Amino acid sequence: MDLISELYYRYNLFNGEKGFIGTTHCGYKIPYFKIGKGEKKIIVTSCIHAREFVTAYLSFLMMDEYKNKTLKSQLYFIPIVNIDGVKILNEIPDYKANARGVDLNTNFPAKFGTGKFNLKKVGKENYIGKFPASEEETRALMDFTIKTKPDLTLSLHAKGEEIYYDFFDEKLKTAHYRFALKAQKATGYKIVENLASAGGYKDWCIHALKIPSLTIEVGEDTLSHPIEKGYARKIHKKIKRLIPYLEEELYEK
């Protein structure tokens, strides 16, 4: 079963709260799955970059692990933000962008267009789009986040085993650092500060919503894009404590 078929297969079988955050440019509905009934809310996104599809399989493993456990929080999983881009991988294996050639993780209104590697030309990666939130997928994720009002967001990317947590705000950087420390303790990954990027989902959550937001780059840096599905279980073993450790921090506030 291919990845997109598995996404909708899981959606049809899922017994908990579920729905769609919106629709892609090509008309695919973007599913979300809710697990847990706790007070705090965490949004977990993955596969916003098409070639990083291993993160979608990682989300599936996390969902399978938590569906029968008592959680402190409500977890909202969006396993594949960029469904259109995943379809294009059959023709361009290292494709990151969506169907319109926009890199969705540069398209959010957070210092839009100021990232070190931002491009203003359509392509397979790094193109920011004509204006902030120009893409259906970007707007869908923004609207869902505003509606859900999460206490924390977690973006799964690949690769490098790194943790990003700050975005041009020294006060929030200090306040959110403890979440990065928890993530580091849970995974052994390296904390990276002052990343020369802009327009990402994490960036927007910090910039606009003032909430802690982490990007977790999973998988060893020695791996080549795209990281194969088979590595998801190995990655999962390494980050299994991530959600529980972050929950600890949420409830210490």
Terminal CA distance: 43 Å
- How much of the polypeptide forms β-strand, as a percent range? 15-25%
- The unreliable regions are none
Query: Structural class per helix/strand content?
Result: alpha/beta
Keywords:
34% helix, Aminopeptidase, 253 residues, 8 strands, 8-stranded mixed sheet, alpha/beta, single chain
Give a written overview of the molecule.
This protein is an alpha/beta fold. The protein has one domain (3-250): 3-Layer(aba) Sandwich (Aminopeptidase). Helix content is 34%, strand content 18%. The chain contains eight helices and eight strands. It has an eight-stranded mixed sheet with strand order 1-2-4-3-5-8-6-7, with helices on both faces. A hairpin with a 5-residue loop joins strand 1 and strand 2 (29-35). It is globular. The model has no long low-confidence stretch (mean pLDDT 96).
SSE blueprint and pairings:
Blueprint lengths: L2 H11 L4 E6 L5 E7 L4 E7 L7 H13 L6 E6 L4 H6 L47 H13 L3 E7 L3 E3 L5 H18 L2 E3 L8 H9 L3 E6 L13 H8 L2 H9 L3
Helix pairs in contact: 2-7, 5-8
Q: Care to give the gist of this entry?
A:
The protein is an alpha/beta fold and about 250 residues long. It contains 8 helices and 8 strands. Helix content is about 35%, strand content about 20%.
